[in-house]
Amino acid sequence: MSKGILSFVVSSRKRRIALGILLFVLVVIVIGSIILHTERFKSYLLEKANSYVQKQYSISLSAGRFDYSLLRLSVVLDDVQIKPITPEASPLQLFEAQRLFVNLPLSMVLFRKLYVQQLRISHPQIVVTQQAKNKADSPQLPQKGAAKKGKPTWLRIDEFDLTDGILDYNDRQYSLQGSLSGIEAQIRYSDAQQKHRGVISSHQGEIGVAQSILPISNLSLEFRFDSREINLDRFSVNTASSSFEASGWLRNYQEVPRYNVQLKGSLQLSEFQPLFNTKNQYQGPVVLTASVEGEGSQFNLTGSLAGQDITIRNIPIAALDATIRGTEKGFSISRFDTDIAEGKVAGELNMTFSPAKEYSVSIDWHSIDLAALA
Predict the structure, then answer these.
(1) Which of 132, 216, 206 is nearest to 169 (CA)?
(2) Are strands 157-171 and 116-122 parallel, antiparallel or unpaired?
(3) Which residues of the chain are under the pLDDT cut of 50?
(4) How far apart are CA 195 and CA 191, in angstroms?
(5) Interior angle at CA 192, CA 189 and CA 196, nearest 5
(6) How many CB atoms lie within 10 A of CB 191?
(7) pTM: predicted TM-score of the whole model, two decimal places
(8) CA gap 73, 110 in Å, rounded
């Protein structure tokens, strides 16, 4: 046999072996893909996931339907529900959604860079309950100058969408409750700014103290954030006759936070009277402005309170003008002037919380008609 013929025979054998290996790999992939996408195997994976989160996070995970795509690196959960194993130990009492969709990028596999390409949540309901705690068990902000070691936690999400959500909140320690419905949220990541930008809105809700409820007509929130800083571009809450707005920033929030917040509210006192749980009358418009800045548990607050033709605890006040200051140790109304009962009342109020509670009041009044206050 000549060398040419022998070379051709060897080459043909190599091609057949390579082709056989390729066919075998393809068959394994096809069979493996079929097995991995069977309902039985999906149920097995969901059970394993539930066992893992129970052990690591003390929560249970269930879903009416679980599906995924290895080619697109996506996961879909329909009728998903997450609940704590011990409700008394967790503020989150319930998370359920009609659908939860997660899509991971191919670069996560190629470059081991973890981030989420898409996260969509449809018709979620979230129930949060803050249990009553002793003062010693309450979380405390770190002191100014304290240091916390470790790299900040950070997860990039390119696209996040939440539609038609419901949030229920209950604080048993202070008898506070609130709810929001029709929640819409959208967050997008900007490569240019290396930040997330988000918008959250709700068209209906309520807040309450004990059994008294104040309806909320709408709420909106616009913000930006990264691993070090949160920028509150605009936060607003509106009721039938009152409005409240805030803006500011929070830096170094995973260690010792620094913050600066500006607040402004136009409040109709009669709307809030049910929350006071009293038969005393509160009426009229007041304007509240405040600025809070600080680091950790130490802060400084300055603000003002003004109103005309108002009623507080059944006392008619023609005009009110007050300046408010405060720190973590106490607060003071450093100046207040009121026109009341055809006269004037002025003075200041100081209240200290630390090291001990102390109060001091200084009041001057002129030409007050006491009979008008009876």
Answers:
(1) 206
(2) parallel
(3) 3, 5-6, 8-10, 136
(4) 7
(5) 25
(6) 8
(7) 0.79
(8) 12
